[in-house]
Amino acid sequence: MRYSHKLSDAVHILAYIDICHDDDLSSTAIAASVESNPALVRRLMGALRRGGLLATQQGSATPKLARRPAAITLLDIYRAVEDDGNLLHVDDKTNPHCIVGGNIQDTLRVAYAEVQSAAEVQMKTITLARLIGDILTRERAKQGSAGE
Amino acid sequence: MRYSHKLSDAVHILAYIDICHDDDLSSTAIAASVESNPALVRRLMGALRRGGLLATQQGSATPKLARRPAAITLLDIYRAVEDDGNLLHVDDKTNPHCIVGGNIQDTLRVAYAEVQSAAEVQMKTITLARLIGDILTRERAKQGSAGE
DNA sequence: CATTCATGTAACAATTAAAGTAACATCAAA
DNA sequence: TTTGATGTTACTTTAATTGTTACATGAATG
């Protein structure tokens, strides 16, 4: 498959809603920033709403964060938009009559869960507030160095 | 795309070569355990060889681990077989004229690198020796409980 | 209250990375 | 020299993501 950008685009949407709260917040306007299309934006917004991160209203282009940016972590967003939240995948078609093929699936499941857990612990430390702050800092740095 | 099983199959191959060292170690025999095909096995073995984890000889079905299983980590295997070693992917097509679209790529790259690093630290702690030991332990548990 | 424009959602097509298949050059071993 | 192995490439098939289109539903304005 193609590599998923859902997490990146979901962060983009949330950051956009927070930073550009005075601008047009329609799915079309957000899609222009993501360089994607309104349907994709609405799909992701639906997932974020079901994940308790976003409040939307049908018919009205007035999405709002459901929590403070400091109370939204990258892990929250990840779990909201990624159907398959697994970073690594066990091959579930191995020969059960072989010592290796018959046991490796359970062995790898445990190992992969440890890796997944380590990644999620880190994702939990990264808040939307930090990401928004970083975006704004980078923008200021650009302004400050303009025309040098 | 489909989810990659390359890491799982590569671990399978290495564990098979160590555990079944007295059996047929042809790519066809290994493919039967993986329930895949010989070409896939040979492709992965080629990557493992280039990664310095496996010693093979063209024309002879005598692959050998290039290091002790205790000196091979899940991270070594991951890096050997995954062309794109990134667990998360930045959307590299965002509107550069927007505050968010113009800065979020760099912002996410940093954040994703932290997550990647946390996962890799954990992968580094998981050795092939441990995975092999786990497979053998599970097999013994099956034998002990046979017919219960 | 009708028009306009928004979201919410689903169905379908297009894209792309992985896995399957086949072919063949090269090398080992009997 | 014959047989069978690996190493490698090209091509096909599969499947998850993204793009596209359509339309039901709700909000807002005159």
TrEMBL record, chains A, B:
<dbReference type="InterPro" id="IPR036390">
    <property type="entry name" value="WH_DNA-bd_sf"/>
</dbReference>
<dbReference type="InterPro" id="IPR036388">
    <property type="entry name" value="WH-like_DNA-bd_sf"/>
</dbReference>
<dbReference type="InterPro" id="IPR000944">
    <property type="entry name" value="Tscrpt_reg_Rrf2"/>
</dbReference>
<dbReference type="Pfam" id="PF02082">
    <property type="entry name" value="Rrf2"/>
</dbReference>
<protein>
    <submittedName>
        <fullName>Rrf2 family transcriptional regulator</fullName>
    </submittedName>
</protein>
